[in-house]
Amino acid sequence: MIEELLVAVAGTAAAVAVYAGAAARVVKQYERGVVFRFGRLRDEIRSPGFTMIVPVVDRLHKVNMQIVTMPVPAQEGITRDNVTVRVDAVVYFKVVDAADALVRVEDYKFAVSQMAQTSLRSIIGKSDLDDLLSNREKLNQGLELMLDSPAMGWGVAIDRVEIKDVSLPETMKRSMARQAEADRERRARVINADAELQASKKLAEAAGVMSAQPAALQLRLLQTVMAVSAEKNSTLVLPIPVELLRFLERAAPMPGTDKAVAGPAAGPEPVTAPLSDAYLKGRVDATEAVEDLTGASVEPSPREDSARE
């Protein structure tokens, strides 16, 4: 009797152990358990930890609730300003409703991937090249809105979308490089012109100061000579003041002023500088040389004229 009781207890314990082994489940911290009983969804979502199900009757599906990083394959398209580009992106999303992620869509990861590719191609066609290169924040927000609307019905929430890279044709890259170079050259010329304008204003102010003190111009000339001679140059160029040339021009006699016009209408006799003997002698020699070169004029004889007639 006692042996039969022990055998029954041992059999019951073994059956309980087998049942517990078949019914026991462990849900991890980043997972949620969805139970289907005879194919019908149970309302209770199993939380992380140890849980029990009915063997053979229930089926437990674990859904990962972590943020998933999904790269979007590069999509090639034509922008609104007719430029062919190749754009790739990355999508960050997570499951917020485990039951909807299993029931409403067959494979929520594949669905999100296809929707991201379609939305990316749509964004390329609606945007200009400058927006793709410099205004990516706005495009990222537009992509997130386009993906978030259908994904909420699948129990998925889009965390963020980022455009990683924009590939351009080589011809477009060279054109953009030339444009940037031309723009930089334009700015350099504007800066140089502005510098010349400021320097001219300062030079005009300096000229005004030097005109009040003529000795300042001589001091500046000496400073320039010292700066040039400090470089051990073999040739030293000394500038001649313009005032000296004007003084020599006023001192030189004008042609035709060596004789005064006689008569009362001539007015007072002009005052001319005395001419030196060397100057007078050189003038006579020049006149004789001209006469030697030209020679006396030869007139035809009367015989030659009658013969010609």
Describe the structure in your own words.
The chain is of the alpha+beta class and 309 residues long. Helices cover 53% and strands 21% of the residues. The protein has a 3-stranded antiparallel beta sheet. A 3-stranded antiparallel beta sheet has the order 6-7-8. A two-stranded antiparallel sheet has the order 1-4. Helix 3 runs antiparallel to helix 5 and helix 6 (170-212) crosses helix 7. The longest helix is centred in the middle third of the chain and has 43 residues, at 170-212. It starts with a helix and ends with a helix. Mean pLDDT is 79; it is low at 258-273, 292-300 and 302-309.
Spatial arrangement of strands, main beta sheet: 3-2-5
Q: Which geometry do the CA atoms define?
A: rod-shaped
Q: State the separation between the terminal residues, measured CA to CA.
A: 185 Å
Strand runs, count: 8
Task: Map the helices and strands.
Layout: H1 2-23, E1 24-27, E2 31-37, E3 40-46, E4 49-52, E5 58-64, E6 68-78, E7 84-95, H2 98-103, H3 108-126, H4 129-134, H5 136-151, E8 156-167, H6 170-212, H7 214-229, H8 242-251, H9 277-294, H10 302-308
Antiparallel strand pairs: 1-4, 2-3, 2-5, 6-7, 7-8
